[in-house]
Amino acid sequence: MDPHTSIESNQKTSQSAGSRHYTGLWALFSGVAAREGYLAATDQAVISISNFLATIILARNVDPTQLGIYGVGFVALRLIRSLQEGVLIQPLNVFGASMNDESFRRYATSTGILQILFASASAILVAGCGWLLTILGNDVAGPTLYALWFAFLGWQLQEYVRRMLYTRGSVLNATANTIIANAARLVLMIIWMFDGKLTGIAGLRAIAWGSIIALIPGLWFTRHYWTANFDNLIKTWQRNWSLGRYVIGSTIGSWVSIEFYPVLTAGMISFAAAGAYRALQNIVAPVHALMRATDTFLTPRAARSYSENGQRALTRIMRHVYVITGIPTIAILGIAVLFPKQLLHLLYGDTYIAYSNGMILMAIFYGLWFAYAPLQAAFKAGRISRPIFIANTAATIAMLTIGLLLIKGWGVYGTIAGQALNALIVNFILWGTWIRMRVKTSDP
């Protein structure tokens, strides 16, 4: 072959590959999926900003104990979200994403009925536990738990409707629903603030009322997804449980190993210490929003891609997600580490400046958490939930041993250090499993 011809051929191949690369990159940022991704990011930004502002409003108008009550209640809401994710939301995302309209209506309606039953049962349970603690003389934890019944009921129903919209690609309506819920919540908090009625429990009630208000238009947005001819409830439960038994174990494990730490802090130290933790965590809250956006938006789409193209599709999507979300994550954590005292003073005054050294630990924890969040979403999309369960079980064991010692010895700083340790353990197990899977399938 003529060497000049060979060189020209290689150049054309290289240019063609480069052209495909840039075309794919442009599509990543400008296609329909990208626009939906921007909406999903907006949706989570609204949630994050609302949580951020709610914490600031409370921190500036109540004492650390009241902020701790709100923080512990918020963690309890995340527990019920973990249960909901396992038995209802993730099965809806994974199974519902590839269904035709008629099959989805039957399945989503039966799962919705299960959601109503689950929300009602959890509301009754938390109210009962709160009442029992109150009559036994616990005048802090008891009323806090009792007040959560309304939030457990309203928030779960609205979240189910919102995630149903995501599953069917109606991201704009899901975002609108989020805006309504959080706008109502913040308006109520501001009204109560000026009336002198704002407390930690009032902050939790505001979440509930915002969810109930948003549920009404949410039901309208999803009106085409409901049917009287729904699937058998027992069979739907069995189907959801076939996927959810590991998901629920992993989500509860994740909650226990990471988010239960502030509750332990409240019990072992004080609710005021839990309030200090909440103030620090609020600084890096935008990172949590990115992770939630990734999970909410990525899981149903990755599930469709996995069913069509296997692990190769998951690998490609994951690479894109890490690139897109990694840059803002590094920026947020970097600013938090460089200017902790200034940020704490700006947001809360001088109340929590003494805890500024904890921001380095918080940034490490959130960085490690982010390192496995998209990977965990990919596992769920591929219906590979066992490694998540194992990882979070190992992290839970670490929390109940080393974690307790860290809290006892270092207080709030020990809480964050324990969370970082658990995130490191989850990273080690999930990434180890993923690498072995790629080697086994020879996926480039």
Tell me about this structure.
The structure is a single chain. The protein is mainly α and 444 residues long. The protein has one domain. The chain is 87% helix and 0% strand. The protein has helices at 3-30, 32-61, 64-96, 101-135, 141-167, 171-194, 200-221, 233-259, 261-268, 271-283, 285-309, 311-338, 340-348, 358-381, 386-410, 412-441. The longest helix has 35 residues, at 101-135. The protein is globular. The two termini are 31 Å apart.
Question: What's the layout of helices and strands?
Answer:
Blueprint: H1 3-30, H2 32-61, H3 64-96, H4 101-135, H5 141-167, H6 171-194, H7 200-221, H8 233-259, H9 261-268, H10 271-283, H11 285-309, H12 311-338, H13 340-348, H14 358-381, H15 386-410, H16 412-441
Helix pairs in contact: 1-2, 2-6, 2-10, 2-11, 3-4, 3-5, 3-7, 3-8, 3-10, 3-11, 4-5, 5-6, 5-7, 6-7, 8-15, 9-10, 9-15, 9-16, 11-12, 11-14, 12-14, 14-16, 15-16
For the largest beta-sheet, the strand count, sense and barrel status come to: none
Helix content: over 70%
Tell me the structural class.
Answer: mainly alpha
Strand content: under 5%
Low-pLDDT runs: 6-29
Distinct helical segment count? 16
Q: Number of DSSP strands?
A: 0
Number of domains: 1
Q: Outline, from the CA principal axes?
A: globular
* Element-by-element helix/strand order: HHHHHHHHHHHHHHHH
Radius of gyration: 23 Å
